[in-house]
Amino acid sequence: MIAYLELADYLLIAERVLGLPAEAIANFNRIGLAASALAAPQAGFGDVEAYPDFATKAAVLCWHLVKNHPVPDGNKRCGFLATVEQHDARRRPTERTCGQAANSRRPSRPIRALKRPSRAE
Hints:
By secondary structure, the chain is mostly helical. The protein has one domain (7-95). Helices cover 47% and strands 3% of the residues. The protein contains 5 helices and 2 strands. A two-stranded antiparallel ribbon has the order 1-2. Helix 1 packs across helix 5, helix 3 (32-39) packs antiparallel against helix 4 and helix 4 runs antiparallel to helix 5. The longest helix is centred in the C-terminal third of the chain and has 17 residues, at 75-91. Residues 96-110 have low confidence and may be disordered.
């Protein structure tokens, strides 16, 4: 079973990329497009998944997060980091119990801010 990212996960990623609090990002008028993009890899009809393999699910997630443009800046960085987080979540066992709320889950490893390497000249 694949552990899909939730909007709270995306908000934490965007918080690190944009340097704004997640609460402020949650109030952006286009943030619903992030929720739509996060649901895209789960698409299917009945018992047939539209994207059966994990690589395609990851590509669909990144594509929709970039193209939906849910945040004013940093959509490519957020899309890439969300794809990395989705991959890492797939590799670790789920820690959620049946009684735990879905929105209380936070990524188990901290998202590092992107830094450009300095050029040695």
